[in-house]
Design a protein that fits this description.
single chain, about 550 residues, alpha/beta, 2 domains, five-stranded mixed barrel, 17 strands, about 35% helix, repeat, NACHT domain-containing protein, catalytic activity, Nucleoside_phosphorylase_d
């Protein structure tokens, strides 16, 4: 079979455990060989399901938790330029209650609520009066393209056998007889839910010696078909094995399921989380149901993708594919990867807290900047320690999600740092911004190649900024996107060429070919205010409190 290009793959199916990956692989309609140009250190397999090209992404063996998941997804996003969203598919621990009759083998799907996006990190927040943990950040919602299909899938399940998880499971096991021992549904009598106060007797044995009088009495189900539950999934960096803690947290937050990876992914890539229930998050955890639960989760993902049109998942392929000379030009152009710097700063500062930027989305100046049909410039100014950098990173993340879900928008950004010679000058800023725009609109590389082909040292020359600024303005004129978001943090840390950069920013406000929307941040500096003419039409400033 012919290899596909990296650009062909649009959906990441992420697996933390080998049992989850085996179920996912068995669900695929076909597998693909390694794509051309593949150098990513992550472990992947490739295939097709219901017409969608899928990347199966493996998390490192034995390295569990949100951080490991975030690293893998960060590499994913860099390697696959047309990646649209992720599916985190695997096993989890269920939270049964009178309201939610969750059984082993059922499936829980992340679905946004009034106060959450479908997933919370339950071990991250602050402890308030009474010992209650209060969440201090909100993770992003699953992608709209999938949320809009959940009801359609449920309607299919109510009216036809096309929505049957058990039918998909049976088909997979029939095709793969070697999987039957580990992935077939266990006997119903092994689905044991014990009273939360009753602890498992012997860590080295199963529940054969546990007191069956302490089982919670539940009515037998009339059908074998697993139930699907939609709601909140709790993610953390430790295994939940205490029923009383499980019930307390579930009561406080409305949790249906516990797991260990999703919180590291939700703000990296729009992702829907699907968990097959293999235990009840108590001391009676056993592995007997893991295979079947992994397969029911994979079956749900297959059914969901069957109602998602291929065009809804696949971004339009550019008519311009990068040649080897294009790639050489881009390698020489890039001096520092803004995406890597953004993630490094987030990690250094302990992660992005929702409270550090969410307020600005309701700010009058920001809303004017965002909703205007014209080019706009917003200056976020303030003294050191006001949180300007994390505010900018929050806005970058928010705008990245908008660019992914809305056509005709591009985004480029740069985070200045005075102590790093690669990050403290106007030429580096412009090189990185141009690089990001070309990655999103490949046809713009023609503007670079016109000069680069005659002078391969163009980007390192003394006049590089002036050559690049002309190309940059031409690229805006040539843009096929209606709106271009450009964000630069810490302008006051630009040690060389700041005045020229400010003049370029001011000029782009008058380019009518596209809406050019700048956000810049800095300390209060008179020269910045004067050069950018703040207070005039389409140039405004705001200051974090």
């Amino acid at each position: 079979m012919t290899s596909r290009a990296l650009e062909d793959y649009t959906i990441a199916w992420i697996c933390a455990l080998a049992v989850e990956a085996a179920a996912a692989r068995a669900i695929l309609d076909q597998t693909h060989p390694l794509p051309l140009g593949f150098t990513d250190p992550n472990a992947y397999e490739f295939g097709e399901l219901n017409g969608h090209h899928i990347i199966l992404a493996y998390l490192p063996s034995g390295v569990y938790g949100t951080t490991s998941a975030a690293i893998v997804v960060s590499r994913l996003r860099r390697t696959f330029p047309r990646l649209q969203f992720g599916l985190m598919v695997g096993i989890g621990g269920g939270v049964p209650s009178q309201k939610n009759d969750i059984r082993l083998g059922d499936v829980v799907v992340s679905k946004p609520g009034v106060k959450h996006g479908g997933v919370i990190q339950y071990d991250y927040g602050k402890t308030v009066q009474g010992g209650k943990l209060e969440q201090t950040g909100v993770l992003n919602q699953p992608p709209q393209a999938l949320l809009t299909r959940l009801n359609q899938l449920e309607a299919n399940r109510m009216t036809t056998r096309k929505g049957s998880l058990l039918e998909v499971v049976s088909e997979v096991l029939e095709r793969n007889p070697d999987m039957q021992r580990q992935f077939s549904p266990p006997e119903e009598h092994t689905d044991n839910l014990f009273d939360p106060s009753y602890y498992h007797l012997d860590k080295e044995s199963d529940c054969a010696n546990c007191d069956k009088e302490r089982l919670v009495k539940r009515q037998p189900r009339d059908e074998k078909e697993p139930f699907i539950h939609y709601g909140l999934i709790a993610s953390g960096n430790q295994v939940m094995k205490d029923a009383e803690t499980r019930d307390r947290l579930a009561y406080e937050q409305g949790i249906l399921c516990f797991e260990m990876e999703a919180a590291g992914i939700m703000n990296e890539l729009p992702t829907l989380v699907v968990r097959g229930i293999c235990d009840y998050c108590d001391s009676h955890k056993q592995k007997q149901w893991q295979g079947y639960a992994a397969l029911t989760a994979a079956a749900y993902a297959k059914l969901l993708l069957s109602v998602l049109p291929v065009q809804a998942a696949t971004a339009p392929r550019s008519r311009h594919e990068f040649t080897d000379k294009d790639k050489a030009c881009l390698r020489d152009l890039l001096v520092a990867d803004p995406e890597t710097e953004r993630r490094r700063i987030e990690a250094t500062k302990g992660g992005l807290l929702d409270d550090s930027f969410r307020w600005v989305l309701e700010n009058a100046e920001f809303r004017k900047w965002h909703s205007s049909s014209k080019s706009e410039l917003l200056w976020i100014k303030g003294d050191p320690g006001k949180g300007k950098t994390m505010l900018l990173i929050g806005l970058i993340n928010e705008l990245l999600l908008q660019v992914q879900s809305q056509p005709s928008r591009s985004i480029a950004y740069f985070l200045c740092q005075a102590t790093d010679p690669k990050l403290n000058n106007a030429t580096s800023i412009l090189r990185s911004v141009i690089y990001m725009l070309v990655q999103q609109q490949p046809h713009l590389i023609s503007r670079l190649r016109q000069k680069y082909d005659t002078n391969p040292n163009l980007f390192e020359s003394a006049n590089a900024f002036y050559s690049l600024s002309g190309m940059f303005e031409n690229m805006i004129h040539d843009s096929t996107e209606a709106t271009i978001y450009l964000l630069v943090d810490a302008l006051d840390e630009c040690e060389t060429g700041l005045s020229d950069l400010l003049k370029l920013i001011a000029r782009t406000k008058f380019i009518s070919a596209a809406q050019v929307k700048w956000i810049v941040s800095s300390r209060n500096r008179d020269e910045i205010e004067q050069e950018l003419e703040f207070g005039t039409e389409h140039s405004n400033a705001m200051e974090p409190s």
